[in-house]
Structure formats: C-alpha cells, structure tokens
Write a structure and sequence with these properties.
32 helices, 16 strands, two-stranded parallel ribbon, alpha+beta, 859 residues, disordered N terminus, single chain, eight-stranded antiparallel β-barrel
C-alpha cells in the first residue's frame, strides 16, 4: 500500500508539495489569488488573503463553513457541529493548528493569509477532488451480490485473429462495399467451413463434399451440429444456409491513470449491446482476470459479469462503473465485476491511500471499442441422431456398396485386375457387418482387458456403439472403446477401398459424366424445388430409375424434357452446359451410371464418417462415466463469433460527433487506434463447470491420499516434530521443515517416502518434490491419516479420463477457429492485404490490446 496525502511528504507539505520557499518565522508567502473555485467565490476571504484580517475563534459565516468542511475533506478532525453552525470553535481551532503544523506554519489556530493559501494549495493538489472513486468505505457493510446478478466462471475460448496487417489498413479493407452496399466484413463473416458441422440434420442434408468431410474428421470424438434455427432452408433458393445473429457492441474499458488493472492481468469494461441503432438490448459490466492465451491456442480467463435489460441505465453506466455501484435493482448495490476487481487489487496491495482515503481505486475510461459481432451456436449432436447417422452412413452404405459390387460382377465390369480389390472390399464390408473382422482385429486388445470375454461375432456385435449400453465399470468402458476405435479403423479402410474400386464398379468417372450429373440435378430442381435441400445423389438416382422403369412413352417424354432444358441452357451461354449433347437411350443409361458413381463417391466418405460416428457415440459414454455430473449439451454449447472491432482512445472518442458515436455512425479512419478481425469459439459460460469441478475433486482426492501416506510415513519414521504428540500442528511442522529444503536435500527423504508407499501397497504414483510442497496443510489430520490405503488406481484412472474428456472439448474449440483460415485469408488477399497477413492465435484480448497500445504508445 502506498500513501498520498496530507503529512505524507518528508517536506511536511500535503501531496508531496514543497513548502513555499519564502518563509520567515513560520509564515508563507500569500497567493495573489485563490485557485479553488469554491474558495475564490467567497468574498470575505479576499481580505484574509490580502492580510487585512484573520479568522479567529467565534468567526461565523458560509466562508467559515466552507473552510472547515475543506479541512475535514483533507483529513482533519473538525467537529461536525462547527461545520453545521458555520463557526470556528476551540475544537475547530485545534484542527486548524494541526493543519498548520503539518504544513510548516505557526500553529496559531487562526486562519491568516498563509494558512488560507496553504488550504487552497492542498485542495488544488488533491488528486481525488471532484472525481468519482472507490475506497475502503465503498463496499463496507454491503451485502454480497445477488446470486442471479453475476456470472463467475472460468471462460474458455479459442481466439484467432488476422495478424500481419496494420489496423487501419484492415479497417479500410473491411469497410469496402460491393455494388449491393454490403461491406466486405458482412460478406466474409459467414464461412462455408462452419456449415460442415451439421450432423444433427438428416444425412442427405449434410454437406458431403471432400472439404466438409475432411473438416468433420478433425474431431473424432466431439460431434457438433449447428443449432437448428441457424441452418434453415433459404426460402429463395430452397437450400439450407447458415445464418448469423448480429449485434453492435460499444465497450468502454477502464483503468487507473497508471494502468494498474492492466499490470495485474485484469480488465474491466462497461458494455452497451444494441438491438439496432436506437434500441439498447442489454447493459453489462464485466471483469476478466488472468486472461491469457496458452500454448494450446485457447484463452483462459476467470470472468465476473452483471447485466440488465433496462436500457435507461445507459445514461449512468459510466458513473456506475467508476463508483462501483448501480441502481439496476432500484437501490444502490455493488456491481459484482467492479467489486471483484477492487477486492483483488486490495489483496495485492496495489491501491494507494490518497488524502485520507484508504485503498483508492480511481477508474477512468481509457478506450472505446465498437464491435460488430456475428454469432451462432454449435450444439453437441444428440446421441440418438448419432446412432441414426451411424446406421445410415455405415451398415446401410455397406449393403448398397455390396449390391453395386454384385451388379458390377454380373455386368462383367469387374475384371480380373480389380477383382482382388473387390474381394478385399467385400471381406472388409462383410467382416464389419457380421463383426467377424472386428473380433479378429480387436481380439487381443479385448482379451488384455477381460481374459474371459466372449469374442463370438454376435457377442462383439452387441458391443457396437449403436447397440451397447452405458458401461458400469472402467473395464466395460475400455472394451467398448476398443470396439469403437476398431470400427473407426475398419470403416476408414472400407471407405478408401470403395473409393479406389468405384471406377470399376460404375465405369463412369470422366469429367463429362460428372457434368452430366450436375446438369440432371439442375433440371430436377426446376421440376421439384424441394430437391435443392439434399446434398447426396440418392434422390437423383431414384428419379432416374423411376424414369427408366416408366412406360416407353412416359420415359421418352421425360428424356425429351431434360434434353430441352439442357439445350436451352447451353444455347443461353451457361458454361455449366457448354458441352451438353442431347441424350438418347444409351446416353440416358450412361447418366444412370454417372449417378451411381456419384453416389458411391459420397458413400466412400460416409463410410469413413460412420467410423467417426462410432467413436463419437462411445465418447459420450466416456463423458458420462468420467464426469457423472456433466450432461450432453444439445442446446447452446459453443458460441462461434466473428468479431470486427475498431478501437478509439477516450480522448478521440470525446472529439467525435454524436452521429459518429451512434451505433450506425462511422468512426473516421484517422481516429482509429487499432482494428481487429477475430474469431472466438467459446464454451458457453457455465458449461465447463462440471468438468473443472470433477477434475478438482479428483485432484483433491489424490492429495488426500498423499497426505494420509505422508503422515503414516512421518509416524513410522519417528519424526522428531511428532515427539510431543501427533496433532495437525505437529504434522504441519514436519511438512514445513521438509518443504523448506532444496530438491537435493529433499531427494533422499522422497526416496524413503516412496519406498514406504510401495511397501504399504498404495496405488499412488511416487511423490515428487512438487507433490510434497503442494500438500494442503488442512489435510494433515489424524482422521485423514487413518483412512484405508487405496491399492487400486481408480482415482488416477478417473482423473486421467476426466482430463482427457475435457481436453477433447478444448481441442474442438481450437479446430473450429483454425478451419476459418482458408476462406478468410483468401478474401483478404484478394482485397489487397499484404503478403505478411496470417491467421494466428490472438496474443491478447481486444481490451488488453487497446490498453497496451495507449500505455505504450503503439498499436
């Protein structure tokens, strides 16, 4: 704690000001005029200042009231009655004399010109004068924040940003508009990559192009799907399309004049969230602590916030943040975020005492951030949907492929060369369907887990993810894991085998064949617009077959209609139909082969996806087993936000016109301190709690076991600190003495402790120096010492499992930000961004970037 105030300077002057050098016999040179407005406005003080008179005991008037109140403000004990009655009493004289002594003046107790000048200087020098601030009295006696008013959780998010470009240049590029008046940001904010993750929708409506499939394969355990109302059918073209909710945010970041919050790894902001240019949706005051981007590319931060939907409080939001209180609930209550910041800074000894005020937090607006945020949610795909996807893309596709193989053999398309590949695929497919190949591949691993396991095909098939039930033991979970991962391997093998075999099965893989499929699709979509929502060729193949089976006249009528449509498109100059030639019966048959080829192309990817669906179903059972208090989040799980932000210093913000500061206004480029384009994918606040609580609980259990064995060892070793009795205090002394040793001195002790653990049959891993020093002293009790020794590594297994499950979710955050790179970088490079541009993990949050730029003078 530092102190700034009256009497704190070695010179004896308030606020570190030197005594006026022109002193003689305890007097100071009078001022020519007073500087503090409320003193300067009092006429009777003019005579005092010029030396005509002094103010003595019994002096009355408003000028007396103001002077005595000023002395009280400066920290002197002036009787309240003297201020109320506006009179200099004898007790008031004592306060005046104390002030005079502290300022190197004769302690006469009367107010002469020198004393008046000193009071004026002290008031003028008070850094808090006329300012809103928080001190030790602000929250004293205040009740804890209402439970509903604050969200206090660890915020986990992956944050990637456009780097390698000047902020103002980025702003120029993203502001540019097209012929329809759409900014480049508006056109870029929605990426096709995001729409790949839609496994909660029917298989034939999921994108199955090679890129979308590859993106989904990056998440072998976590199954994500865009929330239903953000992947609806576009009424204009009939296709499913990702939609985004967009808000405008005005954030004001606060800090002290010395950037104390920034230096202590915390941030504080007030936010106005706009529904439109005139309507406030929500006000928020939020604090983050220890916000940092780890080596995994994820941002970890503890967060406290409070919010209100009453936009009328916008007028007082700035004042509310500065004073740490709001009347959002009708009466003054602490703002949880500000209170948390204050408590942490106070605990760190970072706040000064100023002019008689203890632990002063003087907040001021530093930076204003205008953000356009477009977002949607990913949910976890419901397990029932995963089972359906597994059956649709796995067993059903295998059966279809086997039928296609039989047809190709009957037609003589599979010749002796590819026959080996055909036989290999058939063995793989049938071995998956009847479980014989799974039993063969996984048998050894399954027997290691359970030597008595039944490896008959029927028994193994009962362990398939779409059939097995929730395991009740670690061994059962491991058995199911081996089966699921074996299925994933085999389905990927089957997919690769089918992809290689496909040309032989259909005989249609030329560019002209592929073009014919898309031409046929275009025609059918004009006949039946509902087909536009489907991404697989199955419906097209069904329509083709129905025509082939129709009566000759009807069949020719349909062929003629297609030919007429395609010819008209060709003659109109459509490049997709440039090489079209009308189909005869043979051409129609060739179209059927091309459609079958397109279906098998998708089927090969779907077989790989089936293997991934298998591990994703198993993963949900692992989640429930390792973290029993968790649930599958099929609503509002991950928030995916693309955010364009322009940053302005407070001084420049104040210089803007009201129109420029409005949500629909445009900030002049020369006023922009910095600009960022960021993608944040965040676990919805609170969804992480069950996992963090479980991990912490299991870690505590391990510490308890270590504490128990440590005390048993100390007892067995006859440690001298226990000679007077085995109390908690005695055990704590043993720990303190050992923890104080360096690693070299501690090594033989740890060797002895770990030998004791092994002899006791403990399942604990050998203790390290860090383990010993981290033992919580409160666990060193006789009750914990005497708990049974755990001989099975159950806690270690559960902890490793809980950590692994949570790591999969964290990895999903990173993947969902990385996948945006190709589209975003391509668009910016085409717009003229420099070659140095890159998509990289954000090194800091937006608020921190702005504050550091202001503090350090660089953007």
């Amino acid at each position: 704690m530092s102190t700034i105030g009256v009497g704190s300077s070695p010179t004896g002057s308030p606020f570190g000001l030197p005594v006026d050098p022109a002193t003689d016999g305890g007097t100071a040179t009078p001022l020519a005029t007073l500087t503090v407005p409320e003193l300067r406005s009092l006429a009777p003080l003019a005579d005092v200042l010029t030396g005509v008179r002094v103010l003595e005991t019994g002096e009355r008037g408003e000028h007396v009231r103001t002077l005595l109140a000023s002395l009280q403000e400066l920290g002197y004990s002036v009787p309240p009655a003297a201020i109320d009655d506006a009179i200099i009493t004898r007790d008031a004289q004592n306060a005046i004399a104390a002030f005079q002594r502290d300022n190197g003046l004769d302690p006469t107790g009367t107010i002469d010109a020198a004393t008046l000048a000193a009071i004026d200087r002290a008031l003028a020098a008070d850094p808090l004068r006329g300012k809103t601030f928080i001190d030790a009295t602000t929250f004293a006696g205040q009740p804890a924040p209402r439970p509903w008013s604050a969200r206090d959780n660890v915020e986990l998010e992956s944050t990637y940003t456009v780097a390698g470009i000047d902020g103002r240049r980025l702003a120029e590029l993203l502001r540019e508009t097209d012929a329809r008046g759409r900014t480049r940001f508006r056109r870029m904010r929605r990426t096709d990559a995001s729409a790949a993750f839609t496994t909660g929708f029917p298989s034939e409506e999921i994108p199955w192009d090679a890129r979308s499939h590859a993106l989904r394969e990056r998440l072998p355990y976590v199954a994500l799907t865009v929330e239903p109302d953000r992947f609806e059918i576009d009424p204009d073209d009939g296709r499913r399309e990702l939609s985004l909710g967009t808000d405008i945010m005005d954030d004001t970041y606060y800090d002290t004049p010395e950037f104390t919050l920034l230096e202590h790894g915390m941030s504080l902001r007030g936010r106005v969230r706009w529904d439109n240019e005139s309507t406030v949706r929500r006000l928020l005051v939020a604090a983050k602590f220890s916000s940092e981007v780890g080596p995994d590319g994820l941002k970890h931060a503890a967060k406290v916030d409070s919010r209100t939907s009453d936009g009328t409080h916008r007028a007082t939001l700035d004042e509310d943040v500065r004073r740490g209180m709001s009347r959002w609930n009708g009466t003054d209550e602490p703002l949880p975020a500000v209170r948390a910041v204050y408590d942490k800074l106070t605990a760190a000894g970072a706040l000064p005492d100023v002019a008689g005020h203890e632990d002063v937090l003087l907040l001021e607006p530093k930076a204003h951030l205008r953000s356009i945020r477009s977002r949607f949610h990913y949910n976890e795909t419901p397990v029932d949907a995963l089972r359906t996807r597994y059956r649709e893309t796995g067993p059903e596709r295998l059966e279809q492929a086997l039928t296609a193989l039989d047809n190709a053999r009957n037609a003589g398309r599979v010749q002796p060369g590819p026959a080996d590949a055909a036989d290999t695929f058939e063995r793989t497919a049938r071995g998956i369907l009847d479980a014989s190949l799974v039993a063969e591949r996984a048998g050894a691993a399954l027997r290691e887990i359970d030597p008595t396991i039944d490896l008959s095909p029927d028994a193994v098939r009962a362990l398939y993810p779409d059939r097995a039930s929730q395991p009740e033991s670690y061994e059962q979970l491991e058995v199911q894991r081996v089966v699921a991962e074996t299925l994933r391997t085999l389905y990927h093998e089957a997919g690769a085998q089918l992809a290689a075999l496909r040309p032989a099965l259909t005989g249609a893989a030329s560019p002209a064949d592929r073009a014919l499929v898309e031409q046929f699709r275009a025609w059918l979509e004009t006949v039946d617009p509902t087909l536009r929502r489907f991404t697989t060729p199955d419906r097209l193949l069904e329509r083709h077959r129905s025509v082939a089976l129709a009566a000759p006249d009807e069949r020719q009528k349909q062929i003629d209609a297609f030919n007429a449509f395609a010819t008209a498109r060709r003659d109109a100059g459509d490049p997709d139909f440039a090489d079209f030639e009308p189909l005869d019966a043979a051409g129609w048959a060739r179209l059927g082969s091309a459609l079958e080829d397109a279906r098998l192309e998708v089927a090969a990817r779907q077989l790989e996806a089936a293997g991934t669906f298998a591990t994703q179903i198993w993963f949900d059972r692992a989640r429930a087993f390792y973290v029993p208090e968790s649930g599958r989040t099929t609503g509002n799980f991950l928030i995916d936000t693309i955010d364009y932000t322009e940053m302005v210093s407070h001084e420049d913000w104040e210089s803007l016109s009201e129109a420029q500061r409005s949500p629909g206004g445009e900030i002049p480029l020369d006023k922009i301190l910095h600009a960022t384009l960021v993608n944040e994918v965040q676990i919805e606040l609170g969804r992480e709690k069950a996992y963090l609580d479980r991990i912490a609980s299991l870690e505590r259990e391990l510490q308890t076991d270590r504490a128990s064995l440590f005390m048993r060892w100390a007892h067995a070793a006859g440690h001298p600190a226990l000679a007077g009795g085995e109390s908690p205090e005695a055990y704590q002394k043993v720990l303190e003495e050992l923890a104080a040793r360096d690693d070299a001195a501690l090594a033989p002790v740890l060797e002895d402790i770990n030998r004791f653990l092994a002899e006791a049959g403990s399942a604990l891993e050998p203790l390290t120096a860090a383990d010993l020093r981290a033992l919580p002293p409160e666990l060193l009790t006789p009750e914990i010492r005497d708990r049974p020794v755990r001989t099975e590594p159950s806690t270690e297994r559960m902890l490793a499992g809980a950590r692994w499950v949570f790591e999969q979710y964290k990895d999903a955050l990173r993947v969902m930000t990385e996948i945006k790179e190709p589209e975003l970088m391509r668009d910016l490079e085409r717009a003229g961004a420099p070659p140095t541009i890159r998509w990289a993990p954000a090194e800091a949050g937006k608020g921190e970037i702005a504050l550091r730029a202001l503090r350090d003078g660089v953007a």
